[in-house]
């Protein structure tokens, strides 16, 4: 089932998500619905707050040529280690019509639980490391625009308010939409 993706400035995007207490069939179904929503958008990652749910759940899939087999579904993900530094042009399914260069850790080790409740450990670099950090930020009530300069963020907010006021549809973002 395709879910609605909330857009900034929706309040749920700014609130830290609640931990998942138990991974159930409902949790697994939500993860699958989030994946379908992400593919339809299209994007490479999605967090539960983006679909209006305050739950610590993320999904990712960098392989748009072969969607599904390499998908990552995680509940309660935590960055255990981070090292290095990389700058990536990021976009977001909840921050329309805007991309910006964001500095993040180049390599991360993340742990969490899959849809079966099994513990998962992921060591990632490059785009996967960036995407994991981006989605985990959503779980902490942060958006990638919080990681750019205040001036760039204010320009985006003014542009968004103008598009809302005029009723003009935002254009597609360029760059990696996570």
Protein architecture, described:
The protein has 178 residues and is of the alpha+beta class. The chain has one domain (11-177): Alpha-Beta Complex (Peptide Deformylase). The chain is built from 3 helices and 8 strands; from the N terminus they run αβββββββααβ. It has a 5-stranded antiparallel β-sheet. The chain has a 3-stranded mixed β-sheet with strand order 5-4-8. Strand 6 (107-113) and strand 7 form a beta hairpin. The two termini are 20 Å apart. The mean pLDDT is 93.
Radius of gyration computed on alpha carbons: 16 Å
The count of domains is: 1
CATH topology: Peptide Deformylase
**Fraction of residues in β-strands:** 25-35%
Say how many strands there are.
8
Write the layout of secondary structure elements.
Elements: H1 25-40, E1 45-47, E2 57-60, E3 72-83, E4 86-92, E5 95-104, E6 107-113, E7 119-125, H2 126-139, H3 150-166, E8 176-177
Parallel strand pairs: 4-8
Antiparallel strand pairs: 1-2, 2-3, 3-6, 4-5, 6-7
Task: Considering the chains and any ligands shown, give keywords for the structure.
single chain, 178 residues, alpha+beta, Peptide Deformylase, five-stranded antiparallel sheet, three-stranded mixed sheet, 26% helix, globular
Summarize the structure.
This protein has 178 residues and is of the alpha+beta class.
């Amino acid at each position: 089932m395709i879910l609605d993706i909330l857009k900034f400035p929706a309040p749920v995007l700014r609130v830290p998500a609640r931990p998942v207490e138990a991974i159930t069939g409902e949790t697994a179904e939500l993860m699958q619905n989030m994946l379908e929503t992400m593919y339809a958008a299209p994007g490479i990652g999605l967090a539960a707050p983006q679909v209006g749910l305050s739950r610590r759940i993320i999904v990712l899939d960098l392989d748009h040529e072969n969607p599904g087999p390499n998908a990552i579904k995680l509940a309660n993900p935590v960055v255990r280690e981070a090292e290095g530094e990389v700058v990536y042009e990021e976009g977001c399914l909840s921050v329309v019509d805007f991309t910006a260069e964001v500095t993040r850790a180049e390599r991360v080790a993340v742990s969490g639980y899959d849809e079966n409740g099994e513990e998962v450990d992921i060591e990632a670099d490059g785009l996967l490391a960036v995407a994991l950090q981006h989605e985990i930020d959503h779980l902490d009530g942060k958006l990638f625009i919080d990681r750019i300069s205040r001036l760039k963020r204010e320009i985006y907010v003014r542009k968004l308010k103008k598009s809302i006021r005029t009723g003009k549809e935002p254009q597609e973002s360029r760059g990696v939409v996570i």
